[in-house]
């Protein structure tokens, strides 16, 4: 019997592209049709069935949509409602060209004009919007996502601007300088807006393999590529377009594009597949890297697993795998240790910030403000959940429209993440032997496999769920970290008391090392958030070797304390 496993009948979606995971197809069925009875303009696509199920991406019209699924002799109709978001803050998409070159790189017989780039970027942006909503909903945090700037037809707008540089001049720039140049060009143009963050695509990326070599790994591929950039932070995520040729130009092509097993011709085209060598994997990795950098602009640091590690490489697996096993789902109580591995790479870098910095920086010496401890301890502050791979999936979810919680048990949750055992490279430092590392795990990452790393680490998901760019909230003061040493709580050979305060109530506190790697967090999702939180350092099982740590905190209004460093209390 046909069943949609990721959506409830009557569910309200804040995004126009609906992902359906359908199982229970008849054994003899080879394809299925989905008819949006509320929209006759975009029907006719057939969806291939694999192992009794399939995934489909269906464009929605504003309001109610009746999706009729036909497979063999069986039919199923599910009602979903698309309710466009009213969030004042939004994401602005930009395609950047050079003085003498507007086309992106790709096969000679492919249309590679700025118009084609705009269509590909627009489609990819819709896919990422859907991914964010799906993954946050899977974590019980509500179906929330970012908002794009839309045209009159409801499509994301992609602006095209030109750098005052020739492509050869741009190729002499480092990634950081190219990022700074793009940032200045955007901020000095009509596109400057304090209510938006930017995702920009540099169209001048060029894979130059004149000797037709066969690169063995990522290091050699990057050495042959000029104008590649993958940096995000503050208000701008800037990425290259080396694999834009693999992207779908419309939503009907997305699933097939991510399944595409066509080998990348490395003599002529950049292989962005993380060692897997196919167009589909290049599509997933490249689009996933855009999400990774966008997440940096939304104040996320790195994590030992998931999207903010190397999980972005499996974005195509997320959209092409239908039956999600326990090792696939982020909320599963049986998370595989293999899934949680992260590998260092030249694709993972420190986040950066605009010169006109959107992020408040607090010097280290400001941490010594004295506060009195509260008269009564927070009753729930000592309740912690076990690590993610043993934690039960919470049956309570967060209502995406009100921020309130729905049904079942209240809990205060704290989730630890183990310190990454692989040292991360410096900016622009490629990682050797990446291909060998990936080869050992290729079976876990194939589209038809059951394993996938494309999910958020729990702390990242909670930060996103309450973020200003995903909710209608009012501006307020960022949470404060106040502390006094030498009193009360003794940890190891050092005493330290630190208090995080916010009148709006603390939702999450995350600890990061000096390389932006998160290693522990506390969350207050399903109970009223405390306005004052004494950080229980004794509950942190693993500390980085850094002399200082960064404390990141977010309150109910999405106000974020970031860039606040303190000596680690050990």
Briefly note the structural class of the backbone. Answer: alpha+beta
- Largest sheet: spatial strand order: 2-8-7-4-5
Using only C-alpha atoms, the radius of gyration works out to 23 Å
Count every helix, treating DSSP H or I runs of 4 or more residues as helices. 10
Detailed description of the structure:
With 570 residues, the chain is α+β, with helices and mostly antiparallel strands. The chain has a domain at 3-82: Immunoglobulin-like, CATH 2.60.40. It has helices at residues 114-138, 167-171, 175-187, 218-223, 254-259, 279-297, 315-320, 434-439, 442-445, 458-465, and strands spanning 3-4, 11-13, 17-23, 31-36, 46-48, 53-59, 63-71, 74-82, 90-97, 158-162, 196-202, 206-207, 225-226, 230-233, 236-240, 397-398, 405-406, 413-416, 480-491, 494-501, 506-512, 518-523, 532-534, 548-555, 560-567. The strands form 7 sheets. It has a 5-stranded mixed sheet with strand order 2-8-7-4-5, with no helix packed on it. The chain has a 5-stranded mixed sheet with strand order 10-9-11-15-14, sandwiched between helices. The protein has a 5-stranded antiparallel sheet with strand order 18-22-21-24-25, covered by helices on one side. The longest helix is centred in the N-terminal third of the chain and has 25 residues, at 114-138. The protein starts with a strand and ends with a strand.
């Amino acid at each position: 019997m046909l069943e949609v496993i990721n959506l409830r009948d009557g569910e309200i979606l804040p995004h126009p592209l609906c992902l359906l995971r359908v199982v229970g197809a008849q054994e003899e069925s080879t394809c299925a049709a989905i008819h949006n009875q509320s929209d006759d303009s975009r029907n006719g696509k057939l969806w291939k069935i694999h192992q009794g199920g399939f995934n489909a991406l269906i464009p929605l019209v504003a309001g109610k949509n009746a999706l009729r699924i036909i497979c063999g002799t069986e039919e199923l109709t599910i009602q979903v409602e698309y309710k466009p978001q009213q969030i004042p803050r939004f994401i602005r998409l930009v395609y950047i060209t050079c003085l003498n070159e507007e086309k992106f790189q790709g096969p000679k017989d492919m249309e590679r004009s700025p118009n084609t780039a705009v269509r590909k970027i627009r489609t990819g942006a819709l896919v990422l919007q859907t991914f964010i909503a799906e993954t946050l909903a899977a974590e019980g945090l509500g179906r929330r996502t970012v908002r794009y700037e839309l045209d009159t037809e409801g499509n994301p707008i992609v602006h095209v601007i030109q750098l005052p540089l020739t492509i050869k001049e741009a190729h002499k720039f480092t990634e950081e300088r190219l990022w700074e140049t793009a940032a200045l060009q955007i901020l000095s143009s009509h596109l400057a807006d304090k209510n938006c963050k930017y995702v920009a695509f540099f169209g001048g990326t060029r894979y130059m393999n004149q000797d037709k070599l066969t690169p063995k790994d990522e290091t050699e591929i990057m050495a042959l590529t000029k104008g590649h950039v993958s940096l995000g932070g503050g208000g701008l995520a800037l990425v290259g377009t080396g694999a834009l040729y693999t992207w779908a130009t419309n939503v009907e092509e997305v699933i097939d594009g991510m399944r595409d097993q066509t080998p990348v011709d490395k003599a002529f085209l950049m292989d962005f597949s993380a060692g897997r060598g196919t167009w589909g994997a290049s599509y997933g990795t490249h689009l996933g890297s855009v999400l990774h950098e966008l997440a940096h602009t939304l104040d996320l640091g790195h994590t030992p697993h998931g999207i903010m590690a190397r999980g972005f490489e499996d974005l195509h697996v997320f959209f092409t795998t239908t039956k999600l096993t326990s090792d696939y789902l982020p909320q599963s109580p049986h998370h595989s240790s293999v899934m949680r591995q992260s590998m260092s790479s030249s694709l993972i870098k420190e986040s950066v910030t605009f010169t006109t910095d959107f992020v408040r920086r607090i010097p280290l010496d400001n941490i010594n403000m004295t506060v009195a401890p509260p008269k009564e301890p927070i009753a729930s502050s000592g309740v912690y959940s076990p690590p993610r791979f043993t934690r039960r999936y919470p049956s309570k979810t967060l209502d995406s429209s009100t921020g309130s919680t729905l049904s079942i048990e209240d809990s205060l949750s704290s989730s630890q993440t183990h310190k990454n055992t692989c040292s991360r490279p410096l900016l622009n430092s490629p990682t050797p032997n990446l291909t060998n590392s990936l080869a050992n795990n290729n079976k876990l990452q194939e589209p038809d496999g059951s394993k996938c790393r494309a999910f958020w680490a729990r702390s990242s998901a909670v930060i996103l769920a309450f973020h200003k760019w995903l909710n209608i909230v009012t501006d307020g003061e960022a949470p404060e970290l106040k502390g006094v040493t030498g009193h009360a709580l003794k940890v190891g050979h050092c005493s330290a008391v630190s208090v995080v305060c916010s009148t709006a109530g603390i939702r999450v506190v995350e600890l990061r090392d000096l390389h932006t790697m998160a290693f522990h967090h506390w969350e207050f999702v399903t109970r009223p958030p405390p306005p004052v939180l004494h950080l229980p350092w004794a509950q942190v099982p693993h500390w980085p070797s850094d002399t200082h740590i960064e404390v990141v905190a977010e309150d109910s209004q999405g106000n974020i304390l970031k860039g606040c460093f303190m000596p680690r209390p050990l």
